[in-house]
Amino acid sequence: MIESLAFLLLAQLAGEIFVRAIGLPIPGPVIGLILLAVIVAWRGIPPALRETSLGLLRNLSLLFVPAGVGVIRQADVLAENWLALAIALVVSTLATLAVTALTFRWAQKRFGGRDGEMAE
Q1: What is the CA radius of gyration of the chain?
Q2: Whether the model pTM is above 0.70
Q3: What is the mean pLDDT of each run of 10 residues along the chain (120 residues)?
Q4: Among 17, 45, 69, 98, which lies 20 to 30 A Cα-Cα from 7?
Q5: How many CB atoms neighbour CB 96 within 10 A?
Q6: CA 25/CA 78 separation, integer angstroms
Q7: Which distant-in-sequence residues (6+ apart) come within 8 Å of 29 by Cβ?
Q8: Which three-class secondary structure state does DSSP give residue 23?
Q9: Do the Cβ atoms of 12 and 19 come closer than 8 Å?
Q10: Long-range contacts of 3-6 (CB under 8 A, 24+ apart)
Q11: How far apart are CA 15 and CA 65, in angstroms?
């Protein structure tokens, strides 16, 4: 388990180093995740990494506690900017729904048959 956690953290660190070296406006963990996905697609998922990942996913809700505490501690900022935040939430939700629907339609045309069945 320690080796798998170290592997996950090294992927994140590699992403951070890459982003800072190149100066990309993308979070380092996102690049690390892409790197991890490429490695896993190329070499497969080791059983130890699978078990560690499942363990992290089972306890994922605990990782939201610090974020929730941070939101509560910034209640005054939320109260001052509630309208802008509400508009941003509605617009981003609608944009996500639209992009998801368009992506689904594209994938259905690309990979699906006439009746929605998978093309062979």
Answers
A1: 20
A2: no
A3: 92 95 92 93 90 91 88 92 96 97 92 60
A4: 69
A5: 10
A6: 26
A7: 12, 15, 16
A8: coil
A9: no
A10: 3/48, 4/46, 4/48, 4/49, 4/51, 4/52, 4/53, 5/52
A11: 25
